[in-house]
Prior knowledge:
This protein is 48% helix and 11% strand.
Amino acid sequence: MNTSEVLVRRAQVVKVHLDALEQLLANPTPGISEAIRASISLRFLFDRALGQVAHELGYKITIRAPIVQNIPVGEALLFACGGYDLGLGVVKPHYAYREPGHTSPHRQQFERLMANSPSVHSFADVKLKAFEEQTCLAMLGLPVTRHSVIRYVANKCGGAHHHDNAADFEEIEMRLTQVGHSLRVNGTGLSAVFLETVGTASLLLASSSIDELRKALT
């Protein structure tokens, strides 16, 4: 197809979605509305569009992301990654484990879990794909990646349906029901699922490589 016949070029659409995320994050106390709209933009960007445009323009994307590999998320009743700035300060990571009594034989195991659950993250620069596949949420021992959280919110709330992920979405739905849809963490008034959606957008836009790409798109 002749490029003159293309309605909107992919690079333009990527710019629109990155600009939309910046506008959403301008609210220092984002709510459900911001999380849903962020999920729609992130879903498009993570479905290869962002990486392809960066490659076409000769840019390599790296994201400064929390290091979570050594956190025992598989043992957590709830884990919400945190580590991002939403305008009113950095959101701290949240952990909830089954806590036995002080004389319980399982007490030492619980204390080891807490010792391996940092209140302040260390960070490392990771490639875009690794960032998407990073665990940002865990519910009743089920680790959920950033990409899965984004697709889940976009599917359930944003109308961006993904029938190929039906089984995965049902598993997330079941765990959410068990831990409580209305669960709030970090005093933000926003559920962990929505909070991590907005947090993923915040970490993405904070990347210097994304800033450089946005300047090139402008």
